[in-house]
């Protein structure tokens, strides 16, 4: 009797082991951020994982450089090409470097899309994310609305090779063209997506130009170091409250909304990274099924001031 039971148990284990591959994902899709220490991309990861779970036959793999390092991002993509994953969604840190990586993946038969930051001259099939020129225009228009009297302003950007950030900078300049705002020399600074460096650069900009009337970070980096940002803004809180110094910042992560609510900034213009992650999975799956997909999918913007920040925090 004991021997019979042992055989039944062993047979059951064998069947379970044979069944396991059937439960595994049919497709392995990879989402590659510019930097994993940037909390913005955590939301793209969450959207990717949620949608993969809903679809049921997809594994969402999230991996990128720890910090903003285009060469490391290129190496990571090459590793995934070697592993023969089923699709890549890349936030492009450097257009020149990534165009080569995308070509290598495409040559290996791996479909590539971009999200958040595009490489339009590459062999990527689609881009999912923000209309970055409109994003920059929205930041500039928000500053103009808050301070039509103008003054000197500066911008903080991330990586100098990122096309999406260059488009935002152009958008801000276009929105302020012909107004009473003038951009200071040395703007924009490039923090390479480093929150602590972004805060330091804001401090340096204000020190170099004591009558600086506004700073516009075209990404949320300085606020991703909330205590550092709060320390910076606290030094100029009277000027912020009186309208002498204005901070209009990109992105609307929770810590940013809280800083705005508490009076450490004047306005935020936000993106929708969670949707980017979701739509990346939908798009890669459609490509694998042989379906035609739109080349450009814009995910929209959110304008936030003290008037609607409480609603955004709900």
From TrEMBL:
One protein family per Pfam: Peripla_BP_4
Stretches assigned to the Periplasmic binding protein domain: 29-292
Protein origin, superkingdom: Bacteria
InterPro entries, sorted: Bact_Solute-Bind_Prot2, Peripla_BP_I, SBP_2_dom
Entry-linked Gene3D superfamilies: 3.40.50.2300
Location of the protein in the cell: Periplasm
Family as reported in the entry's similarity comment: Belongs to the bacterial solute-binding protein 2 family.
The protein's name in its UniProt record: Sugar ABC transporter substrate-binding protein
Organism encoding this protein: Bradyrhizobium guangdongense
